[in-house]
Write a structure and sequence with these properties.
This protein is α+β, with helices and mostly antiparallel strands and about 400 residues long. It has two domains: about 80 residues, 2-Layer Sandwich (NE0471 N-terminal domain-like), CATH 3.30.2020; about 250 residues, 4-Layer Sandwich (Double-stranded beta-helix). Helix content is about 25%, strand content about 25%. α7 packs across α8 and α7 crosses α9. The two termini are about 35 Å apart. The structure holds N-oxalylglycine (OGA) and zinc ion (2 copies). One zinc ion binds next to loops. InterPro entries: AlphaKG_dependent_hydroxylases, GBBH-like_N, GBBH-like_N_sf, TauD-like_sf, TauD/TfdA-like. GO terms for molecular function: 2-oxoglutarate-dependent dioxygenase activity; metal ion binding. Belongs to the gamma-BBH/TMLD family.
């Protein structure tokens, strides 16, 4: 330890780390000792870690190393640290003076949050596959406009992949206004905001009155929209009930029942394609994408914009039979959620996880009109982190 630094009157007592998320509440540091592996640290509650010196140098939060306005990193960690710094603990915070005279100060709570041994805390919930009799979170429109209600909606969306907003006004574009509170609308070839009603010259099954089996929208895009919002303005026609099923749950069921079928569907890219007079949008990707741990990354199931099956002939039969099993699982009663969307309600769901559909309706029995748009999942997580700053 360098005793000269310990008494330095210029050392800031509570280092400013350039973070908007709170870190100030962690315990104070009680020990900081240089070892062969780096800086061994111990906090008041007995927690310990050792951080490499280059890690500490890299995370210096002084205005030369981290831009004071953008909070972005300026320091580039290319040179190894060859000489240890001098070390001081001031009021439980770590102060280092490097060989070249550069001074770094670390808040003990900021370091505590970043101990490599513990998972980073996050305001964003983990995905929870639906369980039997899953009932969606319901948030009233007036609550959605408050930070608490918005947080409840965002949490349900990221955890369950679906949430229902109720008691909203029957006004056009309300879906865009609600979506814009979260982030910019994700535009597609159907526009940034689309109307779902039966139309005279439909370019999409959704714009007819036919039933739509479970699907995701736009699997023919490299990056299909993450979050879909459907706001109901009129639903007086007979039929037209909404259908949903959780891809995270169904993929688990498929893994249990037929792991070979899951392997085929997750390892065999197939083609998806949409064509009209002005577009020809095509993508080749598997129906199911899993991460290295086997968790669902995304579903691409939409039977009517599936393109010609271009596979080696000897793989075709097995692919069709795996597809049929997945289809059966999605459409089995135990996996489906069905309800009638009422005027003033908005259902929102993770388009790359939760499949949606609707029952056929009779356009002569009454009007059915939904307005829809899409959002990026990143913007939902971002809003949740921002709202969590004030907790
Ligand atoms: C869609 C869709 C569902 C509905 O527009 O993609 O699936 O209830 N609509 O009409
Ligand atoms: Zn610095
Ligand atoms: Zn759809």
């Amino acid at each position: 330890m360098n005793s000269a630094l310990q008494t330095s009157p210029t050392a800031p007592h509570s280092p400013e780390m350039g973070e908007l998320s709170p870190y100030q509440s962690g315990p104070a540091l009680t020990h900081a000792t240089l070892t062969q592996k780096g800086m061994a640290l111990e906090w008041q509650d007995g927690q310990q870690t050792t951080l490499p010196l280059l890690w500490l140098r890299d995370h210096c939060a002084c205005p030369a190393c981290r831009h004071p306005q953008t909070r972005e990193r300026l320091y580039l960690p290319l040179d190894p640290i060859t000489e240890p710094p001098s070390v001081a603990l001031t009021e439980g915070h770590l102060h280092l003076t490097w060989q070249d005279g550069h001074v770094s100060a670390f808040h003990s709570g900021w370091l505590y949050q970043r101990r490599p041994e513990t998972a980073l805390t996050s305001a964003v919930p983990k995905v929870a596959p639906w369980e039997d009799n899953f009932a969606p979170e319901r948030i009233r429109h007036s609550d959605f406009l408050t930070p608490e209600g918005e947080k409840a909606w965002l949490t349900a969306m990221l955890r369950d992949g679906l949430a229902l907003m109720t008691d909203g006004p029957l006004v056009e574009e309300e879906v865009s206004r609600l979506a814009e509170r979260i982030g910019p609308l994700r535009a597609t070839n159907f526009g940034a905001r689309f109307d779902v009603r039966s139309k005279p010259n439909p370019n999409n099954a959704a714009y007819t009155a036919v039933g739509l089996p479970l699907h995701i929208d736009l699997p023919n895009w490299r990056q299909p929209p993450d979050i879909q919002l459907l706001y109901c303005l009129q639903n007086g026609a007979t039929g037209g009930e909404s259908l949903f099923a959780d891809g995270a749950r169904v993929v688990e069921a498929l893994r249990q029942q037929d792991p070979a079928a899951l392997a085929i569907l997750s390892e065999t890219p197939i083609d998806f394609r949409f064509q009209d007079e002005t577009h020809d949008i095509s993508m080749r990707a598997p129906v199911i994408t899993l991460d290295s741990a086997g968790n669902l990354v995304e579903m691409r199931l939409n039977n009517w914009i599936r393109d010609a099956l271009h596979l080696p002939v000897e793989q075709m039969e097995a692919w069709y039979s795996a597809y049929a099993l997945l289809w059966k699982l999605f459409h089995s009663e135990g996996h489906q959620l069905e309800f009638t969307l009422l005027p003033g309600q908005m259902v929102a769901f993770d388009n790359r996880r939760v499949l949606h559909g609707r029952r056929e309706f009779d356009p002569n029995s009454g009007a059915r009109h939904l307005q829809g748009t899409y959002l990026d999942r990143d913007m939902l997580a971002s809003r949740l982190r921002v709202l969590a700053r004030n907790e």
